[in-house]
Amino acid sequence: MDQELIIKALKSACGNKNFRFQVIIKDSQLHIYINRKLEQQPDYSFLTNIIAQAIASLSFDSLEGIWLHSRKLGTIEPDWQTFVELTTDINSENIDTIASSQNEQDSQDILEDDSSGDTGLLHSTGMFHSKPFKEEDIDTFTARNTETETVPTNNSQSDRNSLAQYCFVSNKKLLTCEIIAPDKEIMRLVKFFHHLSDNNKQKILPALDDYFKLAKTTDIANFAIGVQKWFTQITDLNDDEKRQVSIWLSRYCFDSSATIAEFKAIVAKNTAIAATKKNKRSNTEYSFTPAKSNSQATGSNDTQLGSFTLKKFKLPPIAQKIVLPFAWTMATVVLIMLGIYTNNSDIKLTSPQIPALCINTIGSQNYCRLAVNLAGAKMIKQSSPSIFPMTEATTIAANYGCQRYANVKAGISGNIDPRQTPVISSHGEQVFAHIYVVQAQQKRVNQPENIRVGCVYTVGQKERSPELLTADLIPQKWPTKHYQKSAVSRSNLAFGIYTNPINLGLYTIFAAIGIAIGSRLNLGIKVNRTQTIYLVAIILGIVQLIAANIPLLSLVASIIFPIVMILASSLLIKDFQINWNYGYFFVTSGILTIVASQFLLYGLCISFLNSLF
Questions:
Q1: Looking at residue 55, what DSSP letter applies?
Q2: Which among 191, 173, 189, 197 is positioned nearest to 230, based on CA atoms?
Q3: Which residues contact 164 (CB under 8 A, 6 or more apart)?
Q4: SS3 52
Q5: d(CA 185, CA 76)
Q6: Tens digit of pLDDT for each residue in 61-76?
Q7: What single-letter DSSP state applies at residue 138?
Q8: Which DSSP string corresponds to 23-39?
């Protein structure tokens, strides 16, 4: 583990350059030596409380308690000490022990000025910071040898250059331009990185580079526990927070001093705003409050400030990622069910029994049963008679139309007049005042067997223009063998007015799956934010819907249009990129994966629905 972090944690808790700390682990007890300047006389009650809270928040293993020793710089024996019991544990294997005694030279080394100064992790309240590490869990630290505490200055320029080679954003202008100030959590994460040793920074930077640029999580088992938890906190952020961290870490690597100075300015500004708001609130309060001592007032202020801090409710990161696709999928499913219910509720399994509707038929019950099995009882009931009655001219036109349909099913061109290629047999009956049923038989072209078709007509807007309700192949042995809907006729599942919204929903869902696959397999598709997948997917869904409705060219347009739109999206949407460095083969594979996913999954989905209904 990093030997520098525990010392910096203590500095952060105390927020004062008048102290130098040394840490010793012995017999499951943590000994903290507080080396102070000669003229410094701290308030030990405050000091004990703050250090105890800082150590307790680290959740060490096997820690039984803390010994605090205070001594003046240049001396060896402490002039004050106390023992603090803790319920948390500390793992002694993760802490580097230091010799139990310190010589006078060590004390002289501590006298050197610490250029790092205040860690800035919390708002300064004077001599001490407010409650340490309340900003959330900088979890695990290790002790360090005080001989390594002096910050080297000779290699500062090379260290800066080594950091500057890392940048986690594609837009280099973000490194220097004015941008929106980060929130408290983002600053905490960047400041944690700031307080890492140079060695640990160089270890973690390649892992950050892989994560932000390639969405690849590196094995971090060999890192310090505190660094592991810090890295895990970054991976658990939502996409917007993750983007902010990548920007501010990039700015820090570009110019660490300027970034930390900017953070301090933000903190100072926020503190001033909070103080102004507090003063305004106090001016509007008229209730009498008894005077309190300084210590009581300080504790009361902290409590009041804490009571005014309201945490905004946030969904877990995984929930934020799935809420939009879940809602979109559920909306599509609801539309599908509505479409099926409103447009296919009349579809029933055909039956050899005479339907109840045919009890009052004016024709043959077999022909009436054929009409009901072909068109459905609902369609027959809804087809109301027109102003033109069913006449002989109407039935002749219906017979002629069904004979042409029989020729087409037998393989004869529909442009040929049925009188030139007459059918083997044809017969029609009027089963209701406005319903006429025809069955016709014809020989297949170049095949020995015959085919039989059934057609259901109703009266149209003109006497010689009957309206075809439905037509299909029927069994050769009809009426002995009743008509059953074929797989072809069942495949035409209708959604009515919901067709386009349903297709848009399905195209978008399957495009999002294709984009996710192409990005996950590193096929030249890079997506920086999860929301970008949904944005590009809905664009491709709209394009696919338009292409599918283009007459004659729907198949070609359904391939070309999405490809063009994917290329355009990579230019217009900054979080959706095509990385041509992967090579044309991988990029082409990634683009075709998206288009193929739409085609394949859409076809499978429609086939599945047809098989159910």
A1: H
A2: 189
A3: 253, 254
A4: helix
A5: 40
A6: 666 778 888 998 888 8
A7: -
A8: EEEETTEEEEEEEE-TT
Dist CA 105 CA 73 (whole Å): 11
- For 224-229, the CB contacts below 8 A with 24+ separation are 224/1, 224/2, 224/5, 224/140, 224/142, 224/200, 225/1, 225/94, 225/139, 225/140, 226/1, 226/2, 226/5, 226/138, 226/139, 226/140, 226/141, 227/2, 227/196, 227/200, 227/203, 229/137, 229/139, 229/140
φ, ψ at 72 (rounded to 5°):
-80, 150
What's the DSSP call for residue 18?
T
**Contact of 34 with 11, CB cutoff 8 Å:** no
Phi, psi of 449 (to 5 degrees): -85, 165
Summarize pLDDT for 434-449 with one digit per residue, the tens: 899 999 999 988 888 8
Query: What is the secondary structure of 252-279 as a DSSP string?
Result: HHH-HHHHHHHHHHHHHHHHHHHHHHHH
Contact 402, 471 (CB under 8 A): yes
CB hemisphere CA count around 528 (13 angstroms): 23
| Highest-confidence segment of 82-91, 98-107, 225-234, 562-571 | 562-571
- Maximum alpha-carbon separation in the chain: 125
pLDDT of residue 479: 85
Both tokens assigned to 469: 């309700």
Q: Using alpha carbons only, what angle is made at residue 211 by residues 206 and 216, rounded to the nearest 5 degrees?
A: 105
Contact yes or no for 122/53 (Cβ under 8 A): no
User: Which residues, including other chains, have CB under 8 Å from residue 391's CB and lie 6 or more apart?
Assistant: 463
Q: Closest by alpha carbon to 245, among 320, 169, 164?
A: 169
